[in-house]
Specification:
It contains 6 helices and 16 strands. It is an alpha/beta fold and 237 residues long. It has a single domain, classed as Purple Acid Phosphatase, chain A, domain 2 (4-Layer Sandwich), CATH 3.60.21. α2 packs parallel to α4.
Length: 237
């Protein structure tokens, strides 16, 4: 996989096609919206979905940790699909999660799905985190940022569609502006919200580029060009 550089508030970040971001200067891996145990939550509501999303998400996380060898992980909220998720998690999956994270410094940012601290998880649970000029939050776009600072967030599960001659290609994506980076959802069952959906408005003001996840690399496109191409398609009779 080929990670792509992005500069934000004077810091060099790397965006990985796996859906994680790296802060090399701090040996930090950043990930959003794992949504562990979404499958079991759906099953409790009568939706027959396979109960393997947690295991697949753990495998993806394990791959990213092995590849980049961080000393710290920042999880930008909604690590758990709800506050009962850890209790529903299979013992083997709980053991795997602890094994992966116990050697590391872990910062769990509270999300709207998992607002309560989870003392059984290694690391610290925080409402948000600021380090240098970077703010780490679950829901971005709600607070004005000083000119020299920037924000990393999750929550919106951004995805985008690139038009091609063979039709549109839709993939989860990073959404970047001059002061904001919204990470794609990392969990196996998370889905996504199109970056041109009105619900994305808080984080698309001033948006510059999208970076669609590919198998080995990211596929970058100008946000404005994407918007214009969709407007042209909508105007066709």
């Amino acid at each position: 996989m080929i990670a792509a550089p992005l500069h934000l508030a004077g810091e060099r970040l790397m965006l990985c096609p796996s859906g994680v971001a790296l802060w090399p200067a701090k040996r930090t891996l950043i990930v959003a919206d794992l949504h562990f145990e979404k499958g079991s939550a759906q099953a409790m509501r009568g939706h027959p979905v396979p109960p393997y999303d947690t295991r697949e998400t753990l495998e993806r996380l394990s791959f990213a940790l092995r590849r980049y060898g961080p000393r710290r992980v920042i999880v930008l909220g909604d690590a758990l699909h709800d506050d009962g998720a850890l209790a529903r998690m299979a013992p083997a999956d709980r053991a795997t999660l602890r094994h992966l994270l116990s050697p590391l410094e872990v910062l769990w940012i509270a999300g709207n799905h998992d607002p309560s601290p989870q003392p059984d998880l290694p690391g610290q649970c925080l409402p948000e985190w600021k380090e240098g000029r970077l703010h780490f939050r679950h829901i971005g776009g709600a607070t004005p940022l000083p000119r020299a600072e920037a924000e990393l967030s999750g929550h919106y599960h951004p995805k985008a569609t690139l038009p091609t001659r063979a039709g549109g290609i839709t993939r989860p994506c990073f959404l970047a502006s001059g002061q904001r980076l919204v990470l794609p959802a990392f969990g196996a069952f998370t889905g996504g919200l199109d970056v041109l959906d009105p619900g994305m408005a808080p984080v698309t003001r001033g948006a510059l580029r999208v970076f669609l996840l590919g198998r080995e690399r990211l596929h970058s496109a100008s946000f404005e060009a994407l918007r214009q191409s969709y407007a042209a398609l909508a105007a066709k009779p």
